[in-house]
């Protein structure tokens, strides 16, 4: 089968380390299932692995891809919960297991015609959701769901700022927060993405770093250095910033005086539990909210897709078809 495999790592030229290889179809271990991947989607995580960030060189080569939707061996339509670990080791929360791994970190990922995962990581795919839509959910949408509802605990009427509107996580956060009755503001470097975010439910969208119409209760941060100071400035006293990523850099000035004087909370967030992924599906069924799919590409064109992601040229998610 064809698989997009990280064979080397380079900070300056990450795509040079990605090869399309012919590899054997994997055989599932006891308690694991074989999944025929109908759709996957790109995440910045794939780029970080190729850059050598957070992925040790001794785990190369590795088939990339963190998101998968497809068929199990019995023909059931499934979505893969991508966090592999032991919930008990995390006090009941697999995302807190110190030894957890996202798909493609220690186990072969989803940019392949087939993958194997623990059977407990399979979630039934509802019939009202397409494979393409389902493949957008496990990482980006699951992360946005946990940031908003588990970590920030937003409630209807809260004011929420989402930084970097065009991102996979950010577009999900805008749609989910709006569906939950929040007043949503967004920032983006791109005028087109700002305009599009208004159609997803944002009340207003401003260029990155510009003043908002009002202070907010919660900021959803995945951009990092480029937006961090703005995120803290936009919070009302007692507000909360939830951070799950730092695309533009991870070491901004901390602005500690503002954090303590304004009594701000800074919360980290990573991934989602299987239960949160199931709750996300229920929310989507109830509200009709669906992912923003920028485009779909066959696996053979994955380099082009990752280039668009690195260049910030995508709006929402790019879906990959490994079996096209
Ligand atoms: N902790 C977790 O579990 C988790 C899960 C998913 C993602 N993440 C992390 O979260 C980050 C976003 O992931 P993603 O998949 O949503 O990526 P993405 O789709 O590529 O989105 C990144 C967004 O960040 C904004 N951005 C990038 N550079 C910027 C800059 N210099 N100034 C202002 N805005 C900038 C862009 O927004 P505009 O183009 O609209 O300005 C872009 O749309 C990544 O670092 C990823 O690794 C973490």
TrEMBL record:
- Which organism was this protein described from? Actinocorallia herbida
* PANTHER family per UniProt: DEHYDROGENASE, PUTATIVE (AFU_ORTHOLOGUE AFUA_2G13270)-RELATED, PTHR45033
Q: Where is the Enoyl reductase (ER) domain?
A: 13-320
TM annotation in the entry? none
By its UniProt entry, which Pfam families does this protein fall under? ADH_N, ADH_zinc_N
Protein name from the UniProt record? NADPH:quinone reductase-like Zn-dependent oxidoreductase
- GO-annotated molecular function: oxidoreductase activity
């Amino acid at each position: 089968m064809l698989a997009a495999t990280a064979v080397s790592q380079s900070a300056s030229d990450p795509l040079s380390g990605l090869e399309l290889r012919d590899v054997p179809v994997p055989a599932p271990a006891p308690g694991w299932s074989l999944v025929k991947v109908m759709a996957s989607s790109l995440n910045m995580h794939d780029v970080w692995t190729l850059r050598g960030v957070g992925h040790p060189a001794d785990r190369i080569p590795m088939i990339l891809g963190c998101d998968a939707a497809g068929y199990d061996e019995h023909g059931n339509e499934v979505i893969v919960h991508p966090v592999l670990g032991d919930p008990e080791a995390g006090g009941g929360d697999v995302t807190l297991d110190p030894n957890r791994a996202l798909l493609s970190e220690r186990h072969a990922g989803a940019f392949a015609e087939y993958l194997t995962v623990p059977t407990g990581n399979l979630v039934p795919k509802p019939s009202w959701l397409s494979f393409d839509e389902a493949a957008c959910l496990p990482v980006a949408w699951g992360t946005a769901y946990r940031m908003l509802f588990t970590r920030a605990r937003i409630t209807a009427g809260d004011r929420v700022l989402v930084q970097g509107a065009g991102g996979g996580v950010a577009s999900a956060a805008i749609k989910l927060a709006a569906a939950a009755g929040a007043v949503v503001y967004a920032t983006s470097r791109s005028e087109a993405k700002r305009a599009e975010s208004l159609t997803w439910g944002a009340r207003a969208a401003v260029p990155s770093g510009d003043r908002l119409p009002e202070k907010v209760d919660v900021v959803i941060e995945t951009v990092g250095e480029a937006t961090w100071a703005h995120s803290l400035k936009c919070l009302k006293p007692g507000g909360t910033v939830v951070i799950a990523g730092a695309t533009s850099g991870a070491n901004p000035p901390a602005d500690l005086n503002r954090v303590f004087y304004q009594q701000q909370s800074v919360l980290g967030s990573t991934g989602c539990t299987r239960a949160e992924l199931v709750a996300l599906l229920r929310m989507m069924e109830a509200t009709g909210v669906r992912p923003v799919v920028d485009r779909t590409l066959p696996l053979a064109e994955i380099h082009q897709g990752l280039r668009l992601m690195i260049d910030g040229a995508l709006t929402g998610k790019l879906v990959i078809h490994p079996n096209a």
